[in-house]
From TrEMBL, chain B:
This is SUMO-activating enzyme subunit. It comes from Zophobas morio. It holds the Pfam family Asparaginase_2. Keywords: ATP-binding, Metal-binding, Nucleotide-binding, Ubl conjugation pathway, Zinc. It comes from the Eukaryota.
Length: 520, 758
């Protein structure tokens, strides 16, 4: 990445780092249907700097496209829509290469069943039910993420279909610090035993970081209580008191570092546990059945798991970062250095395990580079895997639905009914006759069928269906832009494997200004 | 060209309105580009765009109307060109100008139907807000940071305006920390930025230093902040022809030695180490640094002392050349304004010229600041930072991505459709959050809040009380600190009776801004009429003396035009309260958490039951008085926390506006029955009452039960009751005279549901 590229992306590197940007650059995105919704989603991904894009669309430019699709230039009526939008979209970012195919996706798949294999993400905009089912199944079997986005009048729907998605960097806010007070590593233990706060004068005492204060008094406590950390509330209060009294050396009240130690005292009895999301990853069958074809994530996860249980007594690799503490620079950096060194040691042990696993599967050592190993060690507490739901299985889980507010959720069924209607009658509800209400009754029976099929006894008022007919499957640009923004954002999360993506569907109701996510 | 889709969904009437209405878009940045695109594809035909900025490379990741070859060009013009080329039927004018300039007066604003704010800085936002209030136009305000975003609609008299809620004040640092005892990288960055202003900027011009962190701070101490060569630092540097080594020697060696000689400073701190910059001098010039680590980008690597010295030398020389190359009129360089909350007062034309230049030399400035900040950091044993981090610390990069802007801009235009169709009640504030933090909701709507009657900007007749030391506070202080700094005016005129004290015109005979308020005849109780003709904004200032303010830096501003019957002078303003709270926290550390929880808890309490938005001020009032009561109890009486909680709840129960105690909602049979419970964390004691009729303060009964429990077991080892219900609870209360119980006739008489003030 050169200086200009870095400058171009500096505002987003702040969010997902250089690694995230690199993952984006290595990705290939396919868009099916270059309508307003589709091009907006693709626009956002191109701006973000994906590696390449392919537009698949067999339609020609219609008058309606002029109205709502920003990426169709003047005088292109009856030209290939894929080509027109490709031309303008690829101007957005010279670092992204693009191409287009003016053929239907089903035709392509018929002649080239492996067509999708090269893509890292497929976006489907306003797909019809027929294409949806076909493409959905194909991508599901290949575990390629598919993001569907529908803009339907004032309502939009986003759905992620991905058999198994794994996240390395969850970027979880307020993750507890990784001090490992309950079982200090040897170097830290040595530091604790050589530390004697009681022998320090008040000036020196001021420079001690709170973590060391906690560790010191914990040592004292353990000596007094035969190695048992504070457990009951009373004991915990006693422990805190110990710290408080230690700070009383200062004539005029407690110093900031002792106050910090007092308020963070809970780290003394906090056990370093493996979060449930990480355990889920560890227990996943993919972790056990590594093959040549396994995703790099599973090599890394397996190595971390083995390290955790065989080398590190059931603890995840140390992160090696400390929060800011009020302390003397020397004391603080000494402590930080200990944690960093230990973290480096852990990373190298994990690295050895990764290499070993790769070797066993007949892969070269540099198949996974050290930077990735470092990242996974630093973020091991936020590892997570998401098991998706295929389009065919949406029905089975419907009883679990308990989405608030319910009225937003009714749109989910209505949109499904609209697609059902379209498949059966060949046109969208509201567009069949001159009066848009002409389709209302048929749509109502479609909805009844959909609800019946999904075994739902939800009552949905006619107003929804009337609105649906009035929308006439039209794309309002602002609604499309809003939904595509969300879809592209989820796309970036999926491609970078950072942040937890939507799990796994979302309705945007722009009339009430709400967007609610749920799991189907 | 047919927008059938839009026509059918919007309806023909609305569609007509959309194609004829005139729209003003202020700002053509990330959100601005998206809004323009959405407008043009929704059928809007008349757009006027104003933006002061030029295209920068770092804009291209989201501002898709620009391309690499347009870098350096006016954003407004480039965006207008792009939109026109996409859709030639649109009348779009792009104006490369500052929206705060005088040509964009109220008459100009009145030509439009809707205004979109897609701005990145506070002062322009405040200005557009006032212009829209003056012209009575609906304003759609929006903003994003990283993954988060927000839009809202502002309409005079109907909703809160932009200034109805106070905006967060940029973080400040104590002067001595910056000058003598830095301990964090940010301290060094602030120092380095000020050094830059002193060397190349206009040291007296606030625009030179006011870009974010601590403008006021720096101004007040500008003479001695960087070095003890007051003000003449630049002259001194010029006399040396900006010899980098001499400058470095002075800053990082001599000055550090001076600081070291003040040993009181270092008694409890690690003393700094003077740097010998000559020792780091390079004989040959390094062409461009080699980056061995492929994962480390140029901006991401941390410079060593040698590299800092090298960069310092190079950037200072180039900056000097630029600076000397400027014409006589432009004797200062400015900070890059990009996306930081700037406050530029220079005339717009000058600024436009400068701004083009700035984009060009921006990198040099950043290098200079990074080098200087890091050298200082090395001297003080503070971790050095890379260019990227320094940019973030200096407030000139805020994360910004295309997707967030797309979502927010989509909503903005939908709000515009609501306004045009006359459904103003459908407009709302929308927050874009991370779904995890808002229970599966990505977009969270909130009802628009009615205007704050105390607002300086949109109240019918805004008034404020000003506390200053009259014999120290000068007219210039009044202008810069109060009127421009705190009240957000641009060009204020001040009258006291018939006498003109301050004029917005530059040279007005007979006005000496250096005079103190006392000297120009302002007395305690004087009434100053302040008016900004550009903003069409008036405010009345009542002056009061407060000589506890030692100098001209001290002032206090208190809103006055408030809910009529309240005597406000007794009630401290929120700032005072905040300060009180801070004091309390300092004095009583152990209880500070209780205080904070108190405030949070009260908010929750108020939130129970039905809350009409129009009653918000009443709720706030109740909340505040209850908080005050709580703090007083803690402060003056040193009361127990459980007692404080009881008293505070009782206070809330007594107000008829809240669904507790007096004012409770009726039950199905039309009576009032209250519940209350209280628990003490320390002892675990608990007391509660349920379905209690005829008692004014149920919490007092619960509290009493808790106290009883704390006393221990009753005779024969019986456990005292913890929960009493209904009549039994009432009898218990009556027997003990708790919570003002009434006799049976009164039962249900005075505890009627309070009226909802609408």
């Amino acid at each position: 990445m050169d200086g200009l590229t870095e400058k171009r992306y500096e505002r987003q590197i702040q969010l997902w780092g250089v690694q995230g940007q690199t993952s984006l650059r290595n990705s290939k995105v396919c868009l099916i249907n270059a309508d307003a919704t589709g091009t907006e989603a693709l626009k956002n991904l191109i701006l973000a700097g994906v590696g390449s894009f392919t537009i698949v669309d067999d339609t020609t430019v219609k008058e309606v496209d002029y109205g709502n699709n920003f990426f169709i230039a003047e005088g292109k009526l009856d030209h290939s829509r894929a080509e027109c939008t490709y031309e303008l979209l690829q101007e957005l970012n010279p670092e992204v290469t693009g191409n287009f195919i003016s053929e239907g996706v089903l035709t392509i798949l018929k002649t080239e069943p492996t067509f999708f294999d090269k893509f890292s993400l497929v976006i489907g905009a306003n797909l019809t039910e027929r294409i949806l089912q076909y493409v959905g199944r194909d991508l599901w079997d290949k575990n390629i993420p598919l993001i569907l986005v529908f803009a339907y009048g004032m309502i939009a729907y986003v759905r992620i279909v991905h058999a198994l998605h794994t996240v390395v960097q969850g970027h979880v806010d307020n993750l507890p610090h990784d001090f490992q007070c309950d079982a200090p590593f040897p170097a830290l233990k040595k530091l604790i035993t050589t530390t004697d706060l009681d022998s320090l004068d008040s000036t020196q005492l001021r420079d001690v970081p709170y973590l060391l204060i906690i560790l010191f008094y914990l040592k004292k406590w353990l000596e007094l209580h035969s190695g048992r950390p504070p457990e009951t509330r009373i004991e915990k209060d006693e422990f805190k008191k110990l710290i408080q009294e230690g700070g009383k050396k200062f004539s005029e009240g407690n110093e900031v570092n002792f106050e910090e130690a007092f308020s963070f005292a809970f780290y003394a009895w906090r056990r370093s546990e493996i979060p449930s999301n990480v355990l889920e990853v560890f227990r996943h069958p993919c972790c056990d059945s590594l093959t040549k074809k396994s995703d790099t994530f599973w090599f890394l996860a397996r190595a971390v798991r083995d390290f955790t249980f065989y080398d590190n007594n059931g603890r995840l690799p140390l992160r090696g970062v400390l929060p800011d503490m009020t302390a003397g620079t020397a004391n603080y950096s000494q402590l930080l250095l200990l944690y960093q060194q230990e973290a480096v040691k852990h990373a190298s042990m994990v690295s050895a395990r990764v290499h070993n696993l790769l070797l066993r599967c007949g892969l070269p050592e540099d198949y996974i580079d050290d930077e990735e190993i470092k990242t996974i060690c630093e973020n091991s507490a936020t590892l997570k895997c998401f098991e998706g739901t295929s389009l065919q299985h949406e029905e089975a889980r419907l009883d679990d639905f308990n989405v608030q507010p319910a009225e937003v959720f009714s749109w989910y069924f209505c949109l499904k009914a609209a697609r059902f209607f379209q498949r059966r009658y060949g046109h969208s509800p509201g567009t069949g006759t001159s009066n848009y209400l002409g389709d209302l009754l048929t749509l109502k029976s479609c909805l009844a069928e959909v609800l019946n099929e999904m075994k739902s006894n939800r009552k949905i008022e006619d107003e929804y269906l009337i609105e649906l007919c009035r929308f006439g499957a039209s794309e309002i640009h602002s609604v499309a832009a809003c939904a595509s923004g969300i879809a592209a954002q989820e796309g970036i999360k999926v491609l970078t494997r950072q942040f937890y993506p939507l799990n796994n569907a979302l309705i945007v109701d722009t009339v009430t200004g709400q967007a609610v996510s749920f799991r189907v | 060209m047919v927008e059938r889709a839009a026509q059918q969904v919007l309806g023909l009437t609305l569609y007509e309105k959309v194609s004829t209405c005139k729209v003003l878009v202020v700002g053509a940045g990330g959100i601005g580009c998206e809004i323009l695109k959405n407008l043009s594809t929704t059928g809007f035909r008349n757009i006027f765009l104003v933006d002061l900025d030029t295209v920068d490379v770092s804009n291209l990741n989201r501002q898709f109307l620009y391309q690499l070859h347009q870098v350096g060009k006016s954003k407004a013009e480039a965006a207008a060109d792009t939109i026109r080329s996409f859709n030639p039927n649109i009348q779009i004018t792009g104006s490369h100008a500052d929206i705060r300039s005088f040509e964009y007066n109220v008459e100009f604003f009145e030509k439009f139907d809707i205004v979109f704010n897609a701005l990145d800085n506070l002062s322009a936002r405040i200005h557009v807000n006032r212009m829209c209030l003056a012209a009575n136009l609906p304003l759609i305000e929006s903003g994003t940071t990283g993954y988060l975003g927000q839009t809202t609609v502002i309409k005079r008299g109907l909703t809160e305006c932009f200034e109805c809620t106070p905006k967060p004040v940029p973080k400040r640092f104590p002067v001595c920390t910056i000058r003598s005892t830095p301990s964090l990288p940010i301290h060094c960055v602030v120092w380095a930025r000020h050094l830059f202003s002193q060397l190349f900027g206009h040291a007296d011009d606030e625009s030179a230093v006011s870009l974010s962190v601590n403008a006021q701070e720096l101004r007040s101490a500008e003479h001695d902040l960087v070095t003890d060569l007051p003000k003449s630092l630049r002259k001194w540097a010029v006399s040396l022809n900006f010899d980098p080594y001499k400058i470095m020697h002075k800053l990082f060696s001599e000055d550090i030695h001076t600081l070291l000689s003040m040993d009181t400073l270092w008694r409890n701190r690690n003393p700094p180490q003077p740097l010998n910059c000559y020792a780091h001098a390079k004989t040959e010039k390094v062409q461009s640094p080699v980056y061995e680590n492929p994962h480390c980008l140029p901006d991401q690597s941390v410079w060593s002392v040698d590299e800092c010295v090298d960069h310092f030398c190079r950037s200072i020389k180039e900056l000097r050349d630029r600076w000397e190359g400027l014409t006589n009129d432009l004797t200062e360089l400015l900070w890059d304004k990009d996306d930081s909350s700037s406050n530029i007062n220079s005339s717009s034309l000058l600024h436009v010229q400068l701004h083009c230049l700035i984009n060009y030399i921006n990198l040099l400035v950043m290098q200079f600041v990074t080098a200087a900040a890091n050298l200082r950091a090395y001297a003080f044993g503070i971790p050095a930072s890379n260019l990227f981090e320094i940019k973030a610390l200096a407030g000139s990069i805020i994360p910004a991505i295309a997707t967030t802007n797309a979502i927010i801009a989509g909503i903005c235009v939908i709000e515009a459709l609501h306004i045009l169709s006359g459904d103003f009640d459908k407009c709302q504030t929308t927050f874009l959050k991370t779904e995890k933090n808002s229970r599966n909701r990505l977009l969270v709507p909130e009802k628009l809040v009615p205007p704050n009657p105390k607002c300086y900007a949109c109240a019918e007749q805004p008034e404020a009380k000003l506390f200053v030391n009259l014999s120290k506070f000068t007219l210039e202080d009044l202008r810069s600190k109060i009127l421009i700094g705190s009240l957000g005016m641009l060009a204020p005129d001040v009258c006291m009776g018939p006498k003109l004290l301050l004029s917005s015109e530059e040279e007005h005979a007979g006005i000496n801004k250096a005079k103190t308020l006392k000297e120009v005849g302002v007395r305690p109780g004087s009434l100053l009429e302040v008016e900004d003709f550009l903003q069409d904004h008036k405010i009345r200032l009542f002056v009061a003396e407060k000589d506890t303010f030692q100098d001209q830096d001290g002032f206090e501003l208190e809103s006055r035009s408030i809910d009529s019957e309240e005597n406000t002078s007794k009630r401290p303003s929120s700032e005072v309260l905040k300060r009180d709270l801070e004091e309390i926290e300092e004095n009583l550390f152990s209880k500070s958490s209780a205080l904070i929880y108190l405030s949070i808890y009260l908010k929750k309490f108020i939130g129970a039951g039905f809350c009409h938005p129009s009653n918000e001020y009443l709720y706030r009032k109740c909340c505040k008085s209850a908080c005050l009561l709580g703090w007083r109890l803690i402060l003056d009486k040193n009361a127990q926390s459980s007692e404080v909680v009881k008293e505070v709840i009782a206070c809330l129960e007594d107000t008829k506006y809240l669904n507790a105690g007096t004012g409770s909602n009726l039950n199905m049979s039309g009576h009032v029955e209250c519940d209350a419970s209280i628990m003490e964390g320390k002892s675990g004691a608990f007391g509660a009452v349920g379905c209690l009729p005829g008692v004014k303060n149920p919490i007092c009964v619960a509290y009493d039960l808790m106290l009883e429990e704390r006393k221990g077991l009753l005779n024969f080892g019986l456990i005292p009751p913890m929960l009493l219900c209904g009549r039994a609870a009432w009898m218990y209360a009556r027997d003990r005279g708790l919570g003002e119980p009434c006799n049976e006739e009164e039962l249900g008489e005075y505890l009627v549901t309070g009226p909802f003030a609408v």
